[in-house]
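Pipeline run #58 for the internal structure catalog. This entry was flagged by the ingest filter as a single-chain record with no existing model, so it goes straight to prediction. Upstream metadata was stripped on purpose; only the residue string is passed forward. Reviewer on rotation: M.T. Logging verbosity set to normal.
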Amino acid sequence: MLPFLPFTRPTLDEETIAGVGDVLRSGWITSGPMVRELEAKLSALFAGRPVRVFNSGTATLEIALRLAGIGPGDEVITTPLSWVATSNVILTVGARPVFVDIDPVTRNLDLDAAEAAITSATKAIMPVDLAGLPVDRDRLYQLAEKHRLRVIEDAAQSLGSSWNGRPIGTTGDLVSFSFHPNKNVTSIEGGCLVMTNESEAKLAEQYRLQGVVRSGYDGMDVEVLGGKFNLTDVAARVGIGQLARLDEFTRLRRDLAREYFQQLDRPEIHALGLGLPVADFTQSNWHMFQVILPEISISRAEVMGKLHELGIGTGVHYPAIHLFTLYRGLGWHMGDFPHAEHAGRNILSLPLFPTMTATDVRRVVDALHNVLQA
């Protein structure tokens, strides 16, 4: 019997594992030299921009909102097709998320719909690069400049992606990345925020650790209300090892995505009516390979269950946020965003991670074909 194939799996090399052991033996395991080294390497990756790391990609979004001055009475335009953290952090700072529908082709925020949703209360726009496919940065920043909005790029899934030859994070306003274990680069848990200037970075540090500012050996003050969002050196050492392989991971993922398209183009598969992602092998980092299932007599849960029985793991990324009980209670309803709702009901993430092979891809596609055909 073939081994179980999960929908994702982190690739941790022996050097990284040994490096974690070194950190543990050093006696300094919370935020320290490894955090500073990871931040320096990330800053170099992002064209020298200031970068600070945090204990999650959710924290980076919350801090970005606070740096942008977003609070009660403000509105932030975002997508309903994302991990719920994207909108939860807007509520956390006291603002209101304003959802607009997705583009059914890219599955990213429809920027024309976003512009139509702008009101006098709109202070920021928070797009998501779903599965690593970048939102149109040219249109995004034209819109933001025209309406004087801050942009908080939820680039949780797009480390290694680019727009017109410029890596995501090297340009723009506030850019947030996640290093969760299912991301292309992981620090076990964690994330980073790319900022526009050093004063923002200094304030981010205060928000990261209880608002504390230190001076000398014993000087301490608290100027703003912060939280507990710091990354450990153990996690940072994992991130350092992973970051060194970013280009390799991106290349391997693109190769696997090409193989998926080749296998899905077989006549018997094509006839199933699967909705495919945009075939972008230049700008997307292929964080996930997602199909839209046809709406037939078998449910998505049944498809996932049958694939699991065949030894293949899948994921759902994501249900439409506005249909969760919390958000229905804030006034959203079924039918508000048809494209996001259709995707939310039917989207399926297929296995994709660097150590997969072309044979694995064919196995996944064959199994999916057999389940849907049956």
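catalog note: The radius of gyration is 21 Å.
catalog note: The chain has a mean pLDDT of 97.
status: ready for reviewer M.T.
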